[in-house]
Design brief:
It comes from Spirosoma montaniterrae. This is Glycosyltransferase family 61 protein. By secondary structure, this protein is α/β, with parallel strands linked by helices. The protein folds into two domains: about 120 residues, no CATH class; about 180 residues, Rossmann fold. Helix content is about 35%, strand content about 15%. It has twelve helices and nine strands. A six-stranded parallel beta sheet has the order 6-5-4-7-8-9, sandwiched between helices. A three-stranded parallel beta sheet has the order 1-2-3, with helices on one face. β7, α10 and β8 form a beta-alpha-beta unit. The longest helix is centred in the first third of the chain and has 18 residues.
Amino acid sequence: MQSLLLKVLYLFAALRYPRYKGDLRYFVRDNFYARLSQLPFFIRDYAQKKPYKVIDFQGEFEHELRYVLPFTYWHYLNGTLKQTISCQATKPFYFFSENHTEKYTKRIWQDGYGNYNFPNMTHSPSFDYSKWVPVPFKKHYQNDLFRYDKPLLVIANKYNIEWDKPPINFLSIDALDRIVSTCKHTYQIVYNRPLSTQIIGDNSEIMDLNEHEWLRQQHPEVLLMNDLYQTHSDKLMNFNQLQLMVYANADRFISMHGGTAALASYFGGINIILSHPGGGFEHYFDEYSTIFPAFSGAKILHAKCADDVFEYVNRYF
């Protein structure tokens, strides 16, 4: 039955969105099927409304932010959340869950595909927001510990293997130098590129850009998230809690394609996302204009190259 229904939905996707060809239609099909998979829960979700939902996820961090956490938070607000299970160091993201288990030590990117337990489960030209409420991280994590004389600007960089290829979406040291030199007089800049020991990895190997010591030497005004963690680790549950607390006090972000961009989009303000064409399906489905702004109402500026980042920084920061 599932196989037949998926074939029917593939045909429907082709008719509904004729401009999407080949593999792109499978994404649309899968999202349609994921929404239909919610029908058996109608009575429990809207009539009985008792805790029953166990949400278990080991997939990519970006998928967890985009689809799993908003679905989980909806169940929490609805009174139907029973338990959450995810990777290590995720408790700060599930602060609202009274029964959260950090079970997994590694993320498996394939877990997000063919997983129809969530009404949105992959890339799509449209999303179902009926059971989708973003977690209010900014409201919950705002604090006085990470406040400074100048407004915060978070530069959330990354430098890792992408789609089994060398790093694509990242800010080089030269690009960082240009951005920091432009912004450091107006903003207190916090630079964030987590080390492999601070976050749970998946199939994307984290590489060394050698920028942390360079920043300490050339731009000592910049605060490094790694240094903040060393200073305040006695007050923190883990590195993810630190990220959430710093981000909650900021309204300006520069982030990279993937989970880095999704997390920064949860905190309002303006988020410049560097995402090169040809890498990632967000481009094909125009998701920087749909689901990313929906996380918090943030203004999302999609930079397709480093020069776009510089232009947006000059115009909006």
